[in-house]
TrEMBL record, chains A, D:
Pathway: Pyrimidine metabolism; UMP biosynthesis via de novo pathway; orotate from (S)-dihydroorotate (NAD(+) route): step 1/1. This is Probable dihydroorotate dehydrogenase B (NAD(+)), electron transfer subunit. Residues 1-89 form the FAD-binding FR-type domain. GO terms for molecular function: 2 iron, 2 sulfur cluster binding; electron transfer activity; flavin adenine dinucleotide binding; metal ion binding; oxidoreductase activity. Pfam families: DHODB_Fe-S_bind, NAD_binding_1. It comes from Methanohalophilus halophilus.
TrEMBL record, chains B, C:
One of its GO terms (biological process) is 'de novo' pyrimidine nucleobase biosynthetic process. This is Dihydroorotate dehydrogenase. Belongs to the dihydroorotate dehydrogenase family. Type 1 subfamily. The gene is pyrD. FMN binds at S16, K40, S41, N121, K159, I185, G211, G237, G238, G259, S260. Catalyzes the conversion of dihydroorotate to orotate. Residues 2-279 form the Dihydroorotate dehydrogenase catalytic domain. Substrate binds at K40, N64, A65, M66, G67, L68, N121, N186, T187. It catalyses: (S)-dihydroorotate + A = orotate + AH2.
């Protein structure tokens, strides 16, 4: 598909470095965890997991996102998608735990919306650097929400992993995780020790070129799973023994260790 | 089957640029039935490639301008090693450079990882100073091919661009210089523009067309090269099903490479191999070699 | 709109080889909304063309090898007269020959029927000694263009083949020789083989690819020619809907020709014109000229 | 569409110069009067109106048809179609007249099959050069059949037009005509005089190149109607004042007068 010319209809400043852009293009069939390729004309195209049927939530980190932050309501971006494999939604009677760090709350929020609408209870561990950067706390209000902040400005002082270490995970049927890879890997290690990593789904990031599963730039060792097509959501069992938590590749294909 | 100096497991080869960035991805395609594996094109120094969008699906195929991203030969040896350790499909190293010295440097630099063959990319249509910038000149192609052939002890294939007035003159230059096979075709120069923003869609503005759109172009190039050359022709361009592969083989291909079709089906190699076998059986042939170039005899 | 010396009714022109054998067929396309009409290519002597199959619909377009069938200029003057008497769309006579003398003979021979413009076919990919056989050589294109420009008092357009290493060098030759416009592209060399019989499908074995498959190739050629030349570029190749026409215009086309798409809809000219008007209005432009080549400014 | 590789399953010698070829390819959706492009490998491709869902009836007249006559059961041809506009079938209570000359009986026979199956009565005037060449007489047995032969070897001696001259056509709702163009034009003139030509459909022949309505080689004067796409079946009213009966064009586009 060609990029869909999409007009920005609303911009919400979630925190100084995070904004949610709403578009006049709605991806009605999108499954939570699926992404779109976002083309910032004249700059670059980057993958962004949908934070809603017609929204992306963006942290300013590079050329494309910086240029996005210069755009206003009425400006346009090109959107291709939805692409990739999303999260497996919970069944009616399942117990759910969300673990989100920073802007990693964005891919998980649509899942929280769904389970709230279905009347399923979800427990959330929501981490951020400080109280100003807590993302989507109201969307996770489908059960208990444990907030952690790096600087202790709200909730528990520390990381989501500190909270997780004290949380009994044996009762949860599904655990959904998204955040910085180091954080996700630490979560993975804790849950693996408890032997519940197979109930867990992680939303990964890698450098994408084609975004549609052809070029192989985002393939992970050792199975050659493509993050853009076989993921970006992977079950914990698929990540065992993989490069996950150890290294990724840059745009030239060189390994960069975490 | 022994084609152009290497022992293929079957006539379907993973084309360059597809799932070829890592050893793991290459090995996966080997497990999925590819008869041989061509790596992403590797050059003398690490290269980030063009900005995105770098590949977009159009109405009848794909347009791409990756820009030859690669970690350089020194960074890639390990990946070839991994691919070779995890699959028994022959590993063909695609390489590029700006001149024969660079090509030779890259080929030599990869030799320690023991690729089974080299494929010279003198045909990428959108990398300034590389690819088709050299591959449209028969003299340069001859010089580059001869130096790599001289530098390595495995077969050398040369991948050709269709974006020339006469592809057979380039093919002949490769053959004369000692290439064991020519591979045709690389992508066809093309471009797509987003009519709403007015921007060309690719980060590089233009790129190369692949997929079903280019199959008739590839069939014609393979047909012409088969007639003009003595070395085997490897057919590539728009093959998405067994019928396409058979058409290419009838035109003169000894084997085929498969690229964009991996988008729709990562098991495409197995599917196509089964289809070719069924065709051979239906029409009473015993092997692919029996039908390679057969259309030339139908007059 | 005045483009390249002729007053078009709108930017959609019937391409050569489509409904262009008779004056009546041309006039019908004029009634259906074409902004101008290009005839079938006319040569010095009657020509039967290749055996059938001469045009087959493929997966992403059409492949054809008509072989320049035509009743010669003396036989065709009457048809031009009929077309001109039955529609007010400008009539563009497509002509071919083996050299500048033949081109000039044909052009002079048609002058009495008062065509509004000539389009030189130096680009048909499958007629030995004609078309692309001359159109791949800038010197020949220059010589032919200059002699026809000298022989006639109406604008001369030159239709280019994409089957060359560098289309802009051919375009520049045409421009330097006095062409009022270049038309890009003629069909892309291609071939299709029937896998069951083993026969190439066309009577001529190979031919030219048209339709959606070639649109990205045409867009790129138009984009390059717009940048390289001062004369207008007429875009042709795979246009089937308003979006396609707009894409070609943004690439640099002053007007477009429409060919194979007549297969699906003989009212295609009206459909595309309406679509272009709607686009202009939506984005606040007043005429097609305002958006021609606009993609070059989007950086 | 690409040609469908079709195996000859049966050949019926209808007369010394006319054979019906049956194929393993069935054009189930074909309407009587529609044609297929028949590709004789290595020779040529010619249009042939279907004489049945899976058959064509061929008169040996040129390279392609001569080559066809060398083929046997088990050999193959390539078939593309069905193409063009066929006959308008009659309604339940309509009265039908068929006028067929020579191999022109082939396009009309499937229509006779249909009306026979529907229990509609049809009157046929069936002409041929001699008694050996009368085609499909049994398929027209859905009512009265008037046979004419040029040599008088069976039925009325003379042409179908002689028989037509003595036939009252005022009662017929639909008249279907196929045969040599001279014959059809004479039929057209008679029926026009009687002002019933608008009830009449003619199946025309022209030299086709593309066969799919693009090249214009088969366009008729003065309206530019394409025989391959707007036809090959035309209503009598569409043919008034046209080239029909006067001239056709050869493969180079030169006019050939009848």
């Amino acid at each position: 598909m060609r990029p869909i010319h999409s007009k920005i209809t609303e911009i919400i400043e979630e925190s100084p470095n995070v904004r949610t852009f709403f578009f006049d293009t709605h991806f009605e069939t999108a499954i939570p965890g699926q992404f779109v390729m976002v083309w910032v004309h004249g700059t670059d195209e980057v993958p962004m997991t949908l934070s809603g049927k017609n929204s992306i939530t963006v942290q300013k980190v590079g050329d494309a996102t910086s240029r996005m932050f210069e755009l206003g309501i009425g400006d346009h971006m090109g959107l291709r998608g939805p692409f990739g494999r999303g999260f497996t939604p919970p069944e009616k009677d399942e117990k759910v735990l969300f673990i989100a760090g920073g802007v990693g709350a964005a891919p998980i929020a649509p899942l929280a919306d769904i389970i709230k609408a279905r009347g399923i209870e979800g427990h959330t561990i929501l981490g951020s650097r400080c109280c100003d950067e807590i993302l989507f706390r109201e969307r996770f209000a489908c059960g208990r929400v444990d907030i952690t902040t790096d600087d202790g400005s709200e909730g528990r002082s520390g990381f989501v992993t500190d909270q997780l270490a004290e949380t009994d995970t044996s009762d949860y049927d599904r655990i959904y995780v998204c955040g910085p890879e180091i954080m996700m890997y630490k979560v993975f290690e804790i849950l693996k020790t408890r032997d519940v990593h197979v109930k867990t789904e992680f939303s990964l990031h890698r450098y994408f070129k084609c975004g549609i599963g052809v070029c192989g730039a985002c393939s992970m060792d050792p199975e050659g799973l493509r993050v853009c097509r076989d993921g970006p959501v992977f079950n914990g069992s698929e990540l065992e023994g993989s490069e996950f938590g150890h290294y990724e590749r840059d745009s030239s294909g060189c390994k960069c260790h975490f | 089957m022994n084609i152009a100096g290497i022992e293929l497991k079957n006539p379907t080869i993973l084309a360059s640029g597809i799932m070829g960035t890592t050893g793991a991805a290459l090995a996966r395609m080997g497990r999925n039935g590819a008869g041989a594996l061509v790596t992403k094109s590797i050059g003398p120094v690490p290269k980030k490639g063009h900005n995105n969008p770098s590949m977009v699906e159009l109405e009848c195929g794909y347009i791409n301008a990756m820009g030859l991203p690669n970690p350089s030969y020194s960074g890639f040896c390990e990946e070839i090693g991994i691919a070779k350790s995890k699959t028994d499909a022959p590993l063909i190293a695609s390489i590029f450079g700006g001149d024969s010295a660079e090509f030779t440097e890259v080929a030599r630099g990869l030799l320690s990882s023991k690729p089974d063959c080299f494929e010279l990319n003198v045909s990428c249509p959108h990398a300034e100073g590389y690819g088709a910038s050299v591959g449209t000149d028969p003299d340069l192609v001859h010089e580059i091919t001869a130096s790599v052939v001289d530098a390595v002890d495995v077969p050398v294939w040369v991948k050709l661009t269709p974006n020339v007035t006469d592809i057979t003159s380039i093919g002949r230059a490769a053959e004369t210089a000692g290439a064991s096979a020519v591979v045709a075709i690389n992508t066809v120069r093309g471009m797509a523009i987003d009519i709403h923003s007015g921007y060309p869609i690719l980060g590089n503005r233009f790129g190369g067309l692949s997929g079903p759109a280019v199959k008739p172009v590839a069939v014609k190039c393979v047909y012409d090269l088969y007639k003009a050359l003595d070395v085997p022709v490897i057919g590539v361009g728009g093959i998405t099903c067994p019928q396409d592969a058979i058409e290419m083989i009838l035109a003169g291909a000894s084997a085929v490479e498969i690229g964009s079709a991996v988008h729709d089906d990562t098991q495409i190699f197995e599917t196509i191999n089964k289809g070719i076998d069924a065709y051979l059986q239906k029409y009473g042939y015993s092997k692919t070699e029996d039908i390679a170039g057969l259309s030339h005899e139908m007059i």
